[in-house]
Amino acid sequence: MDIGCGSGVFSIALAKDNFVVALDIDRKPLEAIKKIVAVVNADAHYLPFKPESFDIVLSLSLMEHLEDPVGHVEDLRNIVKRGRWLILQLPNLQYFFEPHSKAPFLFLLPQKIQRLIFRKLEYAYVNMNLTIKGTLKLLLSMGFTLRKTVKIYHIEAMRLIPWAPAYMFLLQKMG
Asked: With 94 labelled, which of 51, 130, 142, 165 sits at a CA distance of 20 to 30 A?
C-alpha cells in the first residue's frame, strides 16, 4: 500500500514483484498508473480499507500535509497486519531550510507568514508543528516498534550537521 502515492514512482517500482495498491486524493496521477497497480482515489484522512489489510504500508512525505496526523497514525495502525511493516518518511520541518519551500528558518516565522509562503507555492496545507521526535513518540505510543531509522540527506555536506533534512522510519506493528 502506497498512501499519498503522487505520481506513483514507488508504487510502480514495487509492483514489479508485488501486488500494490496506490492511494491519492488527486485523480490525475492515478490515471497514469492504473494499468500497473491497483488505484484508489481517496483522502488519506479516511482510509477505506478493512483492518489488517496490508503487509507493508508506505507513507512518504505525506503526514505533514494532513491536518490530523494522530488520526492518520490510528488509520495506519488499523490497516497494517500484526507483525508487519510501516515505512514512514517525514521531512524535518525544523531544519535550517524548510524542505518544501527551501525558505531558511521558516519554522521560526509566525504561522501567518508560513501559510502565506505555502499558499504562494500552491501547497494546500503543511503542518509546521509536526516534529520528527513528536511523530516517532506518537508512532511508538500507538503500538509500532522502531526497527530502523535512516537519515536522508540531499547533499553530502549536510552529513556534517547532527540532524537531517528528512527521516525514514521502518516500524513493525506489534500486538
From this structure: 142
Give the C-alpha separation, 113 to 56, whole Å: 37
Under-50 pLDDT residues of the chain: none
pLDDT recorded at residue 93: 95
pLDDT at 155: 81
- Grid cell 494499468 — which residue? 35
CA 11 to centroid of chain Cα atoms = 14
**pLDDT at position 119:** 94
Q: Kindly state the cell numbers that stand for 82.
A: 500484526
CATH of the domain at 66: 3.40.50.150
By three-state DSSP, how is residue 4 classified? coil
Q: Residue 142 falls within a domain, yes or no? A: yes
Q: 3-state DSSP call for residue 128?
A: coil
pLDDT at res. 136: 97
148 within some domain: yes
pTM above 0.85, yes or no: yes
Distances (CA, A) of 66 to 71, 87, 143, 144, 169: 9, 17, 21, 20, 18
pLDDT at 17: 87
Q: Which of 67, 58, 52, 65 is nearest to 22 (CA)?
A: 58
Report which secondary-structure segment, H or E, holds 132: helix 132-141
